[in-house]
Amino acid sequence: MLVAVDINIKRFFITIQNINKSAVENRFALHDELTGLWNQHALLEHMKMLILEAKKANRQFAIYYIDLDRFKYFNDILGKQAGDEILKRTAQRLQRLNLDDFQVYHVNSDRFIIILNGNQDDIEKGAVLISAIFNEPFQIEEEDYIIASSIGISIYPNDGEDEETLIKHADTALSQVKDSGKGHYRFYSSRMDVEFQQYILMGKHLRRAIEKNELMIHYQPQVDLKSGEIESFEALLRWNNPKFGNVSPLKFIPFAEETGLIIPIGEWVIDTVCKKVKEWQERGAVDFRVAINISPKQFKAPYLPKLIHQTLRKYDLPASAIEIEITETMMMDIGNVLNILQELKDLGIKISVDDFGTGYSSLNYIKKFPIDILKIDQSFIRELNISQKDVAITKTIIHLAHHLDLEVIAEGVEEQEQVKLLQSLNCQKAQGYYFSRPVSAEEIEHRYFY
After folding, report:
1. Do residues 373 and 350 touch, judged by C-beta distance below 8 A?
2. What are the CA-CA distances from residue 26 to residues 20, 29, 103, 128, 353 (Å)?
């Protein structure tokens, strides 16, 4: 078998002579069986030749390292068959990109690589187009699912002159994207290596954060828009480390989720909040509740209702004193979620859905699940006073909540105009910097209780 790659034309071609059993075996050695794309082995072979040609011609090319955000979660919830279908459709979308001189590879599970020859403008355009194809939902069993992508990009020769270095640096850029919220792309820069080492070091410190008393809970009030009274708060985790200072939750919570540290941290949060609420009640503050955020990994633990029940008993707290807050995307596994939510509901605990309108696109779960509160995502509130579309979406969510006898809370309120609009739309509660930043328990006591 003769394999020849011509990198002067707009596609990679393989010329096969002597098609026989050996040729077929070699084809499978270079292709991914599921998607039909080139595989990791083919990628390395092609890159070696491409680097030689690019060096002779003094030109550049880009490596796009693409990861499907939360694919494992979708695969676990929807099943392997649905997961495979998502991968195949992703491959088809990538192959249909409106780009010149590119090739697509499926290198590992939910990861793809694209090589694109071109100048800086071509490479920027490629990043935008690749991101855009994930805006369209994947329809699985008549339900629509949004699966975003994280993309790390390296460029030959600036970011490396051999295949291993280029892939490594694209992967480093990808890690930076995933650590900063996912769903976007980033180009590699040398400072990322330093930042990655800091990230690893941060993880070591986080493992000892509980025993060193570095974690704390801040509380943000939720204000009744009619009376101005405060009857509920959201508990928000904070980390103050001697080396890193006040670390953003956007940095350390994803790390905790990925490593499993979120389980002991989450248990600490539940215990700490319940202990504080009991302390406040004993000092005379009784007519309020506190919302506790539950992470996806924590929520999937079957012992969660039992843990919460035991903690309530430990501090002799009524279930009405706390609220459990989950996100839309945690509700796709209807059977498992319904069981856990029903157990919590049977305890007398209120359930709120955070970031409403941004996750799982079906409204089916609102009908099926024992939900009490919808929280309108701040992305709809941010431009409420200038965007008629955001007004329409917010109005629809409020209207839906009222008809289903659900409480509705607007998040991220920062301006008086937003408050007035929400009042005119009959939104019940709001929280955000306009009213108060998240503050310590001591500050809550000083402002609202004693």
Report:
1. yes
2. 10, 5, 19, 34, 51
Query: Which among 151, 165, 155, 163 is positioned nearest to 122, based on CA atoms?
Result: 155
Q: Where are the domains of the chain?
A: 21-189, 199-449
Q: Rounded to whole angstroms, how far apart are CA atoms 214 and 210?
A: 6
Cα maximum dimension of the chain = 87
Name the DSSP class of 137: P
Pick the CATH number of 199-449 from 3.20.20.450, 3.30.2130.30, 3.10.28.10, 1.10.357.10: 3.20.20.450
Burial bucket for residue 213 (CB in 10 Å: 0-12, 13-18, 19+): exposed
Fold agreement between 21-189 and 199-449: no
CATH of region 21-189 = 3.30.70.270
Residues facing residue 246 across a β-bridge: 240
Nearest CA among 320, 242, 309, 246 for reference residue 281: 320
* Segment 156-212, tens digit of pLDDT: 999 999 999 999 999 999 988 887 778 889 999 988 877 777 777 888 899 999 999
278 class by beta-carbon count within 10 Å (0-12 exposed, 13-18 middle, 19+ buried): middle
Q: Are 331 and 365 in contact (CB under 8 A)?
A: yes
Query: Over 80: is that where the pLDDT of 32 sits?
Result: yes
289-293/230-241 β-pairing = parallel
Annotate 402-418 with b (16+ C-beta within 10 A) or e (fewer). Answer: eeeebbbbbbbbeeeeb
Q: Is the pLDDT of residue 13 over 50?
A: no
Buried b (16+ CB within 10 A) or exposed e, 172-186: bbbbbbbbeeebebb
Triad 157, 35, 3: Cα angle to 5°: 55
